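Input record (one chain):
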Amino acid sequence: MKKKSKLKVVELFAGVGGFRLGLEGWKGKSSLSQYTKRLKKNYEVVWSNQWEPSTKAQHASDIYVKRFGEENHSNEDIHSVDPKKIPSHELLVGGFPCQDYSVAKQMSKSKGIEGKKGVLWWDIRNILEVKRPKYVLLENVDRLIKSPAKQRGRDFAIILASLSDLGYMAEWRVINAADYGMPQRRRRVFIFATHKKTKIYKNLNNIEEWVLKKGIFAKAFKVKKTQNKQLTLFGNLDFSEIILKGDLSKITKNFNKKNGTKGVFENTGIMFNRKIKTIKTEPDYDGEIQVLSDILISHNEVSEDFYLGEDLEKWKYLKGSKNEKRIKSNGEVFYYKEGPLSFPDSLDKPARTIITSEGGITPSRFKHVIEQQGRLRRLTPIELERANMFPDNFTEEANDTKRSFFMGNALVVGVVEKIGKSIMFKFIKSIT
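The corresponding structure, as predicted from the sequence alone:
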């Protein structure tokens, strides 16, 4: 007789609930089908936490409660939460805040795991130490694997070593949602960890085969030849090997110290007993592709506030190429250079990465601008939600600026749904 297959989930740094949508669906329906088809109820969120520091208003948590209810939801600083009081669970998920790793910061100014946001990793670690769930699924900006600038990969090495010391193996993959047909070019690193008490861990023999063909990410998101054309998926692949030596303080001090400006982690890899194998892979996908035009609402539904007006020239300047003479505070002269961005954005490609400052009327280099019915406009909150594969008006209680902030911090729900299906397949297989 098969055991009950529904997995209990704890969702950390929940935002407005992207992980929950991917695992539970919205009203039982799948994001991958635009919420028209049912999603198997394989997951149950038993506890969630969302807290925005340095502000009294807790807008994201409020949206979460409106959509999923306040039962078993915590709106308190994760630092103050006693891990022992968190319900037992089999899967811990979280997109831990990424500002210290984000491309919005210059790498030289990023403090990585030492920064205000980066230190939240230690809250995750503390919970894992106490609760020891079977599985862990984490998400962050792909820059995490290259942080910080002078010791590239150090922060990621600390995370992997921490997981190993707690009894987990971990695989990772940098996934661009658009590479697998989804409507946004959003690159994020996903980490999936499995505890040594599971059959998956105990039965892992060929870790290279797991990474490329049989693992959680390989089943959800197929890969093919690497950029080195001499290496093939089924041939004699040359994985880079790394061994994490010493305690966490030594790793912090010494990891990649000699060649610090050169990264050591590729977009795909696995860690088992502190031994790491990593390789560069490419997506293998030939299915349907959603593009920006697919997620637009009718021009009749767009408020006049979203159309560009007298500040058009400012928009053109910010979007354009630059090679400008500038002077530092110390009097030093330098030339500021940057290339052009598409203006307006192409409608036959997936949306670019949604950023937290996408809302508001102020001209910006990075906000989307599209042409519709011969007029230029910004994306509406519903379109930003669709780019992340959220249900329409999921965040409608908030204003334009806040809704864009939520989506800039969110993930592409379809990615989580596919990973969730892959986890469930492996879980069911391991208990039968």
